[in-house]
Structures are given as structure tokens and as C-alpha cells.
Amino acid sequence: MYAIPLGDDGANGGSRAELRPLEPWQAEEFLAHIDRGREFIGQYIGLADLIVDLDASRSYLHSYAEKAAADTGRLCGIWLDGRLVGGVLFRTMDVEQGTAEAGCWLEPSAAGKGLVTRAVRVLIDWAVEERGIHRVEWLVSAGNEPSIAVARRLGMTRDGVLRESYLYRGRRHDIEVWSVLAPEWRAARQGA
Predict the structure, then answer these.
(1) CA distances for 158 relative to 78, 152, 175, angstroms
(2) What sections of the protein cross the membrane (predicted)?
(3) Is 114 exposed, middle or buried (0-12, 13-18, 19+ CB in 10 A)?
(4) Could you give the dihedral angle defined by the CA atoms of residues 12, 184, 67 and 176, in that order, rounded to the nearest 10 degrees?
(5) Which residues does 170 contact at the CB level (< 8 Å), separation at least 6?
(6) Among residues 96, 81, 87, which one has the least CA distance to residue 60?
(7) CATH architecture for residues 16-191
(8) How many CA atoms lie less than 13 Å away from 1 in the CB half-sphere?
């Protein structure tokens, strides 16, 4: 199994952060992580409502193992000092069309440390350079300021708003669509 270091700097208090595949055999750890952050994670995304027991956890992870095998999605966990604290993913990935939709979540203890930004950079680098993805999208509830801040830090452009397009917990949410194109991503990475 591989682990990609996300940095041991002051941004995460000297802690060791890693990005690793999140796989079905880790269903118990994944469920425990969701339980720790259920309310925080569930503010804007349905993952917290979906992962309610060990079977649901295993099923969710298995669905992403199938997506990885079919090259239609990816799921990675973020570990901080050996503890699963969040994740990043390509919810969808269409290599033929050159598009992918990235997403993320964190439990409260990991928020504000730059972990998602660093982890998504790794995913986008891989998608653009290894898989030939041309457009990476980031769909986010208009009220989710931390996630919008990640899109900005990644150099994404706000393409528009899908007004009241997402029904979640009985309320309609506006969804902002952000994206970055491969040439923009490469130019920004070279400039850094």
C-alpha cells in the first residue's frame, strides 16, 4: 500500500499527514471516523447520512473499489498521525471525455490545517498528468465557505451557480460549480 506524505510542517502542528487509498477492508475505521465527525461532515454532504453502520461503510468503500477498477472514480483517505480524519475523491471520472468531479470531507479535529487543499492537489496532479483529465470540477453548497475557500486556493474558477438544485435534509441548496482546466493547472503549478 502506498502513502503520500502531505507534509510535516507547522500547517498541521508538526503532525504527520498522509494520503492513502481508502478500501473496503478499512470499513470499521471509516465508520469510526464518520461517527466522530457525523454532525460536522453532514452539514453540507450526505455522506454522514449514508454511512450509518458497518454494512453501509463496507458497501460505500466497495463501490469506490469498483469505480477505481473501472477507472470511473477514486477514493483516498487523509490520515493524521495514523488516524483517519478525512477523505478526498473523484466522485466521477470520465477519462474519455477528460472530466472529473473532485470532493472532500473532514472531521472537525482536522479542519483548518490545509489537509484537503494539499490532498486534492495530489489528486488533480495525478488526474491531469497520469490520466489525461482536462477539466476537474468542484461542486459545493453555496453556504459551505471552507470548501469554497479550497476551490479558490486550488486556483479554480467559479463557473456559475445551480440555483436550488440540491435537496438536502428537506431544504434546497444552491450549488456553486468551480473548475480548473489542465492548461491552467499546469501553468499555476509551474508558477509555484
Answers:
(1) 26, 9, 11
(2) none
(3) middle
(4) 80
(5) none
(6) 87
(7) 3-Layer(aba) Sandwich (3.40)
(8) 11
pTM: predicted TM-score of the whole model, two decimal places: 0.92
* Res. 133: pLDDT tops 60: yes
Q: Which amino acid is at 122?
A: V
Confidence band, pLDDT 50/70/90 cuts, at residue 14 = low
Q: Which residue's entry shows cell 508538526?
A: 14
Strands (E), the chain: 4-7, 17-21, 74-80, 83-94, 99-106, 135-141, 157-168, 171-181
Tell me the C-alpha distance between 40 and 109, whole Å. 10
Domain boundaries, the chain: 16-191
* Spatial contact of 185 and 126, defined as CB atoms under 8 Å apart: no
pLDDT at residue 147 tops 90:
yes
Cβ burial, residue 109 (10 Å; 0-12/13-18/19+) = middle
Give me the chain's average pLDDT, please.
Answer: 94
Q: What is the pLDDT of residues 27-46, one digit of tens each?
A: 999 999 999 999 999 999 99
